[in-house]
Design a protein that fits this description.
Radius of gyration: 19 Å
Order of helices and strands: EEHEEHHEEHEHEEEEHEHEEEHE
Distance between the termini: 20 Å
CATH superfamily of the largest domain: D-amino Acid Aminotransferase, subunit A, domain 2
Strand content: 25-35%
Largest sheet: 9 strands, mixed
Keywords: Amino-acid biosynthesis, Aminotransferase, Branched-chain amino acid biosynthesis, Pyridoxal phosphate, Transferase
Number of helices: 8
GO molecular function: branched-chain-amino-acid transaminase activity
Number of domains: 2
Low-confidence stretches: none
Mean pLDDT: 94
Helix content: 25-40%
Bound molecules: 4'-deoxy-4'-aminopyridoxal-5'-phosphate
GO cellular component, one term: cytosol
Subunit structure: Homodimer.
Shape: globular
Cofactor: pyridoxal 5'-phosphate
CATH topology of the largest domain: D-amino Acid Aminotransferase, Chain A, domain 2
Structural class: alpha+beta
Amino acid sequence: QWIYLNGEFVEKDKALVSVYDHGFLYGDGIFEGIRVYNGNIFKCKEHLDRLYDSAKSIMLDIPLSFGDMQNVLVESIRKNELRDGYIRLVVSRGPGDLGLDPRRSPKANVIIIVEQLAIYPEEAYLNGLKTVSVSTRRNIPDALNPKIKSLNYLNNILVKIQANLAGVGEAIMLNSQGYVAEGSSDNIFIVKRGVVYTPPCYVGALEGITRAAIIEICQKVGYPVKEEPFTLHDVYVADEVFFTGTAAEVIAVREVDARIIGSGAAGPITTHLLKEFRSVVEIDGVK
Ligand code: PMP
């Protein structure tokens, strides 16, 4: 397995960065998780747009142009002979001193890890996941603005810990006002009377690439889709609930906080959207 590290491909156990990297010391950096389907990088431009926007927002200079970054992504999957899998692209502030000052970290670290993906079993897509809501709140605006896909994932990790304690794979995070925001690493959708709803990003949701693809598919196939704040009550009484994310794709939810959702398995609209999504991924990508 070859890891891209600052312009070179190195073997996995030689891919090391400094303990003074502010990504390590302070979570100062950004990342993307990207899927490769059939040798194509899915939504490459969208992921890189989000990466470069996140970088600009936190004043982090990525030492590669957009085009060069696209080329090294392609090179990474070629070098690793990956047809289907996952790319983790990390840009950290780089090594500095023990102070916070980013001016002391003049050189960002750019890391690309390409791997096989452990996804949910197909059974989960048919029967849906059990999930719970958790007490960890999504921080909104400022530094933890969910629009910035930063290395500050402590909130999400706390959600994951609560999910683990509840014995579920994904959990629902609210924002500080009690509106449903998203999962630990997935966006959330609900369906009620044929209308598809997802929280607007200002509620505290990442502008997910899969989320955008699903909104687009809804518009194409004719499901009304609304970005509107909603509460746990709306989730409990929804006809269908599903999560979306690069790794999870479109995964149904069959139970939330011990309330059975709809028929207790993947609903018809969720199933249709997953099918449409899987047909899009095969054709839409950078080779
Ligand atoms: N929310 C969070 C907090 C995430 O980390 C992610 C990405 N794994 C998502 C939502 C889903 O976004 P995407 O569809 O771009 O993977």
